């Protein structure tokens, strides 16, 4: 296992290097942001001076070389909007996004695992129909529509939860439910299908024939052995939450990384975009490695080659 993990860790630098190349090329193709940063009545001389100050008048290979050198120093440059370190701004907003992603995961797991288990234990019942319907609807409903509906019901009509912003635990409820619904739907479907397959295995019948309580058989034997695919989708969804909460953060004015990225895209703030994508890619790689570790913890029979 340690040899495998060491191999995976050695793969991180080249993967991140490829990501940085893709980021730079895409940003370069998008063009320089000078036109959006200067007044509409700026003279051609002022535009040329500003482009020279930012280095946009240099050839592609010179800009790319400077970008790589700065990257090795951990310097993504200064934000065009805020005039401070782009990486510092990204790391400042990251905890809010992680907080929202964690709350969304907790809500998804608390809903999905009990619902998936009960649905598998009692197939073709009302509960099973509700669980399967929830799985379909949860994946089909767009996050932005669900977020707006939650605001309309709980903030505008009932006035029991705040519309947006931060400051208390109540502020995170609506955005966490918005993000966690699709995730819980996916996990519910997977828990149900995994449990249905495990419950028909011979060792489950053997455990029941020994007189064990059905609840103990379900939890200790069936559910434990169905966790590997569930862990896979849970961690993959967690990675998607970190990088995919942009719209939800905008709807609820949540001061996280997603909101910062959207604002940077509108303003063509290239240093922030580059730093944010690099940090997000690094976190996704780390989550994938953590998933591999969890495989071995849950099932020691799994061998890494």
UniProtKB/TrEMBL annotation:
It is found in: Cell membrane. It comes from the Bacteria. The keyword Transport applies. It is a multi-pass membrane protein. InterPro entries: BPD_transp_1_N, MetI-like, MetI-like_sf. The keyword 4Fe-4S does not apply. Keywords: Cell membrane, Membrane, Transmembrane, Transmembrane helix, Transport. Pfam families: BPD_transp_1 (PF00528), BPD_transp_1_N (PF19300). Gene3D superfamilies: MetI-like. The chain crosses the membrane at residues 12-31, 100-121, 142-160, 172-191, 227-252, 272-295. Residues 94-291 form the ABC transmembrane type-1 domain. Belongs to the binding-protein-dependent transport system permease family. This is ABC transporter permease. It comes from Psychrobacillus mangrovi. The lineage of its organism: Bacteria, Bacillati, Bacillota, Bacilli, Bacillales.
